[in-house]
From TrEMBL:
SMART domains on file: MR_MLE
Listed GO MF terms: L-fuconate dehydratase activity; magnesium ion binding
InterPro entries: Enolase-like_C_sf (IPR036849), Enolase-like_N (IPR029017), Enolase_C-like (IPR029065), L-fuconate_dehydratase (IPR034610), Mandel_Rmase/mucon_lact_enz_CS (IPR018110), Mandelate_racemase_C (IPR013342), Mandelate_racemase_N_dom (IPR013341), RHMD-like (IPR046945)
Cofactors that this protein relies on: Mg(2+)
Descriptive protein name: L-fuconate dehydratase
GO biological process terms held by the UniProt record: amino acid catabolic process; carbohydrate catabolic process
Keywords, ordered alphabetically: Lyase, Magnesium, Metal-binding
Reactions that this protein is recorded to catalyse: L-fuconate = 2-dehydro-3-deoxy-L-fuconate + H2O
PROSITE patterns assigned to the protein according to its UniProt record, in alphabetical order: MR_MLE_2
Amino acid sequence: MNPEPDYSAAYAVLHTDAGDGLEGHSLAFTTGRGNDIQSAAIQALEQWVVGRRVDEVLGDLGAFSREMVHEPQLRWLGPEKGVVQMAVGAVLNAAWDLRAKRAGQPLWQHLARLDVEELLDLVDFRWLTDAMTRAEAKAVLTRALPGREEREALLLERGYPAYTTTPGWLGYSDDKLERLAREAVADGFTQIKLKVGADLTDDVRRMKVARAAVGDDIRIAVDANQRWDVGQAIAWMHALAPYEPYWIEEPTSPDDVLGHATVRRAVHPIKVATGEHVANRVVFKQLLQLRAVDVVQIDAARVAGVNENLAILLMAAHHGVPVCPHAGGVGLCEMVQHLSMTDFVAISGTWADRVVEHVDHLHEHFVTPVQLERGRYRAPLAPGGGGEMHAASVADYTFPDGPQWRARGAR
């Protein structure tokens, strides 16, 4: 479904005149020509940002989020979905990056140390209360209060569980798949993921190769990237079932809540996972209400930033469904790790059956790249939300005038 990704992104920076040298950095990941439209949507939010007092904005990021999300004209394009919602996410995530830097804390720690009412004030409960009221969300956070300090210490000591997509890209030879799968296990990963959906015969063979390479104790997730109709998804997964896939990711349209529920019933005990392309908290609400997914997959740059992702994390915890984020593109690993770590310390209070995706490319462009050790994300200690790129990378790769684009004949 995504045959031409170039791993570019719309990059947002918030500057201030404070003189402290601190800026807020974030991105929206749209993989190519869509970035022209995404950048225009981010620029359309300037009136809500430029000229504002920094303390006013950073002091109430719940209100700031609602101002942008409910902007009466731009929201008409969604409402609350697509490039406008992602633009809000880019601006809001940049504001959180700046706030965490000013606090001298990594974003996960900054969020996880907020008191219960502060966290609740960040969430827009409109349209959610039939699935989770503010009082029910408060109960989730209150249950997680005991042990916050201990879990933070454990996170710093052990890191957060990860899984790797590196072995499983379509187009790899069987030998390369086998080698990378074995290397993943040797590196400490307990779960790998394979892309599927192009050819059933090939997928059955590749699953057989992968299962033989990693053994019976390693989870193998598969990801169809929305390629199938509902019936096709069910038939395909029945063919792969002998090799015990752990979950099927994005088996069909991300908007098809009933379709996901049908697939889930039909392929059990294989789990159904989705979320990287789910547009907003309301669709996640329905997926949870209808028991259409076993695994919720948030994305740091798809919905309206940290605030909407907090709402989704709270709903998932309230419904007892684990969250395993998507992080398959430029900067997504760096950003989304903070959300899972917040969830562990302050929301769900557990990392059982929870993993964050990891891919092994493009981290060198980030000021605070992710660090993995024995298949686990090491908790970042640098202040901020992880989305800041090196100035040299931004200069070299800015479209269309950066030297890296000029050398490729950018168009």
